[in-house]
Amino acid sequence: MSMYATIELDRSGTPELPSQFDPDGKGLVYGQNLPKITDELDAIAEEAGVTPITAFFDDSEMMDDDEREEMGLPPAEPKWAPVDQGLKTVRALLAALSNAGADEGKLWDLRVSEAILAAADPTEKFRFSVL
User: Fold this and answer.
1) How far apart are CA 108 and CA 6, in angstroms?
2) pLDDT tens sequence across 100-127
3) pTM of the entire structure?
4) Phi and psi (nearest 5°) for 123?
5) Phi-psi region of 4 (alpha: psi -120 to 50; beta: other; left: phi over 0)
6) Fewer CB within a 10 Å sphere, N or C end of the chain?
7) For residue 118, how many other CB atoms are within 10 A of its CB?
8) Model confidence pLDDT, tens digit, residues 38-97
9) How far apart are CA 19 and CA 8, in angstroms?
10) What is the rounded distance in angstroms from the CA atom of residue 54 to the CA atom of residue 31?
11) CB 35: neighbour CB atoms within 10 A?
12) HSE on the CB side for 68, CA within 13 Å?
């Protein structure tokens, strides 16, 4: 099962992939690498003194209320965070990974996330919707 962590904004919804990341219009997507490297990213965030990226992950839409009840889980409560807090984390992760010579796969999702958060209205809240 593929899992994606893509940005959703509380008022304007899920932004499109910025065109600079898919200049040929191939329908590229982002967010598939982030869930695979959460332990590494959270360790880097802790070292950098910023909020761990998983604090922004929200899986509240992975199951509907009936499925949650069937599994004995409470109703889901979406998690939202200030855009500037997410941007601070993403930029710290990008800096650390770039300095360490990380491969492009790890950097690409973070670069897309940085572009989306930097372009967002700073009064909005965001989350990485995990599906």
Assistant:
1) 13
2) 888 888 899 999 999 999 999 999 999 9
3) 0.89
4) -85, -10
5) beta
6) N
7) 14
8) 999 999 999 999 999 999 998 877 776 777 778 887 777 889 999 999 999 999 999 999
9) 17
10) 13
11) 20
12) 12
